[in-house]
Amino acid sequence: MFSEQQIAFLNMLKVAGISFHASMPTMGGYRDTFIPPHELSEFIEDQFEWVAKKNGVAREDYIRWLDTGGAPQCGQILKNGNRCKNLISGHVQRSLNDWLQEDAGLCAVHGGEPSSNKPR
After folding, report:
1. Considering Cα of 106, then 96, then 56, then 25, what sign does the dihedral take?
2. What is the pLDDT confidence band of residue 116, given thresholds at 50, 70 and 90?
3. Beta-carbon-side half-sphere exposure of residue 25 (alpha carbons within 13 Å)
4. At what angle do helices 59-67 and 47-54 cross, to 10 degrees?
5. Structure confidence at residue 115 (pLDDT)
6. In whole angstroms, how far apart are CA 56 and each of 28, 36, 43, 51, 78?
7. pLDDT, tens digit, for every residue of 37-91?
8. Is 66 in a helix, a strand, or coil?
9. How many CA atoms lie within 13 A of 83 on its CB side?
């Protein structure tokens, strides 16, 4: 996306102490994220893909984590063919990695651990 001349200019800015940051959505608001000059093109092309890659997850998982507010949902398939989506017991806003491990588990109704048994 950037020409060699533009990349050289961006590197000059970096050497001069100028850095690039963006506010990216996370649980509870936004987080200031540093963007290395050599990754600006990738970031501009698809911010969500860039953040997902930085976190070692798929773009779709990062977006679902944001959409669910970090609350893992039950993965039991109901008789009507839809996913249950009750919340998994425990605290609501999980980190991205915790959410990935727990999303699509089972809620207390479908055999998952009730909140009374979860550590606080």
Report:
1. positive
2. low
3. 12
4. 100
5. 67
6. 21, 17, 15, 9, 31
7. 889 999 999 999 999 999 999 999 999 999 999 999 999 999 999 999 999 988 7
8. helix
9. 12
Token pair recorded at residue 41: 């093109």
Q: Rounded distance, CA 76 to CA 79, Å? A: 10
Please tell me the least confidently modeled range out of 52-56, 108-112, 114-118. Answer: 114-118
- pTM equals 0.81
CA distance 38 to 61: 25
Residue 93 has pLDDT above 70, yes or no: yes
Give dist(CA 20, CA 83) in Å, integer: 41
Task: Say how far apart CA 22 and CA 4 lie, in whole Å.
Answer: 23
Backbone angles phi, psi at 71, to 5 degrees: -100, 115
